[in-house]
Design a protein that fits this description.
It comes from Luminiphilus syltensis NOR5-1B. Keywords: Oxidoreductase. One of its GO terms (molecular function) is oxidoreductase activity. This is Gamma-glutamylputrescine oxidoreductase. This protein is an alpha/beta fold. The protein has 13 helices and 17 strands. It folds into two domains: about 180 residues, FAD/NAD(P)-binding domain, CATH 3.50.50; about 160 residues, D-Amino Acid Oxidase, subunit A, domain 2 (D-Amino Acid Oxidase, Chain A, domain 2), CATH 3.30.9.10. It is globular. The chain binds flavin-adenine dinucleotide. Flavin-adenine dinucleotide binds next to helix 2, strand 11, strand 15 and helix 11.
Length: about 425
């Protein structure tokens, strides 16, 4: 069932529903010749585009350099689920960041959805933004976990509504016999991620930011001014931020050993009738189950069911992607077992060993942001904001994140994937119990 097929690497977008339904195709120039800028951001996903936009909003001279197209990486391929929070269990780092640091991270975790809402509103970005989300339970212990999550969100001051739902109540939001109940909240939601990312880049351009596509950075010359080079051009900058995440390859070996590209996949059905769409997801919410290799799904703006799953530390997608994903979908909605599948695609999630975003400095003027470990739509927006604060002279929030240590994955280049695949198999086994 599993064959050797890595997520598509090309200059166009992957064959996703999102790429087929963009508001506009981007066509920014390649980087050619020698340029200067105050800040260069490498990587045109949510992290890079938002960081560049934050800086342009502060009046800074910024250039964004993307190897493929804006949103080509995980940001333009994901499940589109807006999920609050930042990383996992910041309490683990209390010795390093103190109680105030832990509190600050919980505070940041509430900001992502606000930043997205603000971007959509201020720049008029059409990206099918909708609020409403359900965690769904497959085991009785999940319901217990959800009650704890709800109480915890209250405790940290989350202002949104959290409601525990029994099996029948859940059916008003997610109408599947598979689930025992769920946890609804109106703070999370869903979007067309590629249209959001392209809209954010367009806002950057409007504010005078320069954008280069199809311009892969192949070399970094560190110095008083750092120079990044592509095949046909270069930019010399006072500050550089690397935001290539799981797709950055070996450009900076130290960063590559700390982020593991893990493969996740999504299918998009044909547009469903209005009746069928309301039957399966009456609440039009985004949905996730709490397993390690979870199912996540939602309706698109044109009533397709976008159904995602798999989490594969080998970084490879199953050869029979349609078949594997159709089986998962049918387990949730048997009435859709024979639905036409119009799209199937995969992408790389940047996993970090301790599941906290990785921020830091490689030199006096080169910094990086990477590794959101699965949930990045909100955290990318938050990390971009705090990095912009740092570059504009207020490093307090950046420094909290940067003081968390991130170890490389053990096993070196050859053994870290098999080692982690084994670890994943163990967690999948626990999920099945
Ligand atoms: C299938 C899938 C489903 C997901 N679902 C969700 C979800 O529903 N909700 C959620 O919160 N998160 C989800 N995620 C995770 C989320 O998409 C990511 O955490 C987030 O998009 C990361 O954004 P980024 O900008 O850091 O990286 P990316 O979006 O991957 O962007 C990095 C960019 O850098 C560019 N780049 C790399 N190297 C270079 C170089 N040398 N020169 C120039 N450019 C370079 C790449 O081409 C790429 O475009 C999902 C991820 C995947 C793959």
């Amino acid at each position: 069932m599993f064959g050797l097929r890595a997520p598509e690497i090309s200059t166009g977008h992957t064959g996703s529903y999102y790429a087929a339904s963009v508001n506009r195709k981007t066509d920014y120039p390649r980087l050619e010749g020698d340029h200067t800028a105050d800040v260069v951001v490498v990587g045109g996903g949510f992290t890079g585009a938002n960081l560049a936009l934050e800086l342009a909003e502060r009046g800074m001279d910024v250039a964004l350099v993307e190897a493929h197209r804006i949103g080509w990486g995980a940001s333009g391929r994901n499940g589109g689920q807006i999920i609050g929070g930042l990383g996992h269990d910041p309490e683990r780092f209390v010795k390093t960041i103190g109680e105030e640091g832990v509190k600050a991270i919980y505070g940041m975790g509430l900001e992502g959805r606000e930043i997205i809402a603000e971007r959509v509103e201020r720049y008029g970005i059409e990206c099918d933004l909708k609020w409403g989300y359900c965690d769904v339970a497959l085991k009785p212990r999940h319901m217990k976990q959800f009650a704890e999550w709800r109480d915890f969100e209250k405790q940290i001051g989350n202002p949104h509504t959290y409601r525990l739902l029994d099996r029948d109540e859940l059916k008003h939001y997610v109408n599947s016999d598979r689930y025992l109940g769920g946890l609804y909240n109106d703070g999370n939601g869903h979007i067309h991620p590629l249209n959001l990312c392209i809209g954010e880049a367009a806002a950057l351009e409007q504010l005078g930011g320069r954008i280069f596509e199809q311009s892969k950075v192949t070399d970094i010359e560190y110095g008083a001014r750092t120079v990044i080079r592509t095949e046909q051009g270069s930019i010399s900058a006072k500050r550089v931020v690397l935001a290539g995440n799981a797709y950055m390859g070996g450009l900076v070996p130290k960063l590559a050993t700390r982020v593991l590209p893990s493969c996740s996949s999504v299918i998009g059905t044909e547009p469903l009738s209005e009746e069928m769409a309301r039957e399966i997801l009456p609440g039009d919410v985004a949905v996730c189950d709490p397993r390690t290799a979870l199912d996540y799904f939602r309706l698109s703006g044109d009533n397709r069911l976008l159904f995602g799953g798999l989490s594969n530390y080998t970084g490879l997608e199953p050869r029979d992607l349609h078949g594997v994903m159709r089986k998962k979908l049918a387990a949730v909605y048997p009435q859709l077992a024979d639905v036409r599948i119009d799209f199937a695609w995969s992408g790389w999630i940047g996993i970090g060993i301790n599941r906290m975003p990785q921020l830091g400095h490689l030199s006096d003027n080169v910094s990086y942001i990477q590794a959101y470990s699965g949930h990045g739509v909100c955290p990318t927006h938050i990390m971009a904001r705090i990095t912009a604060e740092m570059l504009a002279g207020d490093p307090r929030r950046f420094d909290i994140m940067a003081s968390i240590r991130h170890m490389p994955f053990p096993g070196g280049k050859l053994l870290r994937r098999p080692g982690l695949a084994l670890g994943m198999a163990y967690y999948k086994l626990l999920d099945a119990l």
